[in-house]
Each structure stands twice: as C-alpha cells, then as structure tokens.
Amino acid sequence: MKTITTTLTCVALSVGIFSGCANMSETQRGTAQGAGIGAVAGTVLGAAVGGRNGAITGAVLGGAAGAVGGNIWSQRMQNQKLAMEQATAGTGVAVTQTTDNRLKLDIPSDISFDTGRSGIKPNFAPILNQFATSLNQNPASTVTIIGHTDNTGSDAINNPLSVERANATRDYLISRGVAGQRIGTDGRGSREPIADNATQAGRDKNRRVEIYVAEKG
C-alpha cells in the first residue's frame, strides 16, 4: 500500500510539473497532462488487479495512453486556433486559448455590429465564413456565443440586444452548414465590461461578441 501511495504521489507531482512548464506548446502541455492523468488511472487499476507490479505497469501503460489522448485534444484545438489567427489577421479579432482549453474569439463592435443593432456587418461575414469552415471540419467541437453591450441605455434595451447579437451570430453559422444543436447562446447585457464605459473607446470595446469553442466531453 505504501508503494502504491508513493507512486500516486510521484505521478501527481509530475502532472503539476509538466502542465506548468511555461516553455511548452499547447500540444506539449496537453500531452503531459494526459500522460499524468492516464498514469494515475493506470496505477489505481493496476494496483487493484496486480498489486505492486500491477500498479507500476498500469502507470506506464496509462501514461502512454493518456499522452496520446491529451495530444490529440490539444492538437485539434491548436489547429483551429492557428486557422482562425490566419483568417482574422489584421482585423482586430483576438484569438486565444483559455485556461480550461477552450478556443476564444473576441469580436469587437467595429467588426461585428453597429450601435444598437444586431445585424451582421459585411466585414464580420468573412470571419464567420472561415469559422464555419473550421467548425465543419471539426464536428466534435461545440460553440458558445455570448453577446455584450456597453452601458448606454437601460437593461431593458441592452439585455435583449446582447442576446439578439449572439443569436444573429449563431444563425449565420447555421446558414453556413454548422448544426444548430452544437451552438449555445447567451447575452450578458452591460454586466461584464472589459473597458471603461466612461470613454467612447471603452464603450466600443465593451460592445462585443465572445465565441468559445470546446471539445465534446
């Protein structure tokens, strides 16, 4: 039992060490995290079946399997991220990967929507076209679209407007062949500003749409 506990402790430390390495790429981090998680699972299962030797063997095999799984996940997300970075280069759209391994597109108001409107602007359409192509090439991913407004006007106006913007984005993606059941929408009104609403520049930044992409669990 002591050996198994020691093995689990070492594996857990390995997960923390490898997942926290700053110089790793997203794919390398995913591989390391997958290996650590797989090793823990393999250790527990191996110990239950074969005692000390089973725990060691299970850790090795579980780590190898987990590394493959983690790498596949991160590589898919990284490929989508690179594709969207290329498609949005020079547009002002921010493409990032979140701490929970989702892909995030932050669409500012000068690209997405006119003030007080929910209609897709012409310069937003090419970005959504490319995004739809990426989604259709990765059918295992799901999408969450969140609309935001600045604090101009009342909640009675801003709350439904933010939802309408998210829904308009969803409907456009559906028109490009993305299955509607893969897309969820929400509106936050003016409740989550990212800039100072006291300035015009700040209000422009707060009127935005955020798009998140995740892999199905």
Could you characterize what this model shows?
It is built from six helices and five strands. With 217 residues, the chain is α+β, with helices and mostly antiparallel strands. The chain has two domains: 73 residues, no CATH class; 126 residues, OmpA-like domain (60s Ribosomal Protein L30, Chain: A, 2-Layer Sandwich). Strands 1-2-5-3-4 form a five-stranded mixed sheet. Helix 1 packs parallel to helix 2, helix 2 packs antiparallel against helix 4 and helix 4 crosses helix 5.
Count of runs of 4 or more consecutive helical residues:
6
- Tell me the span between the first and last alpha carbons: 33 Å
Order of the strands making up the biggest sheet: 1-2-5-3-4
Q: What is the CATH third-level topology name of the largest domain?
A: 60s Ribosomal Protein L30, Chain: A
The sequence of SSEs as H and E is HHEEHHEHEHE
**Tell me, what's the shape?**
globular
Number of domain units:
2
How is the main sheet built?
Answer: 5 strands, mixed
Mean pLDDT: 78
CATH superfamily of the largest domain: OmpA-like domain
Question: What is the highest CATH level, the class of the largest domain?
Answer: Alpha Beta
Helix content: 55-70%
Q: Note poorly predicted spans.
A: 63-73
- The gyration radius over C-alpha positions equals 22 Å
Instruction: Supply the helix-strand structural class.
Output: alpha+beta
Total beta strands: 5
Name given to the CATH architecture of the largest domain: 2-Layer Sandwich
| Strand proportion | 5-15%
Describe what is shown at a glance.
The chain has 217 residues and is α+β, with helices and mostly antiparallel strands. Helix content is 58%, strand content 14%. The protein folds into two domains: 2-74, no CATH class; 90-215, OmpA-like domain (60s Ribosomal Protein L30, Chain: A, 2-Layer Sandwich), CATH 3.30.1330.60.
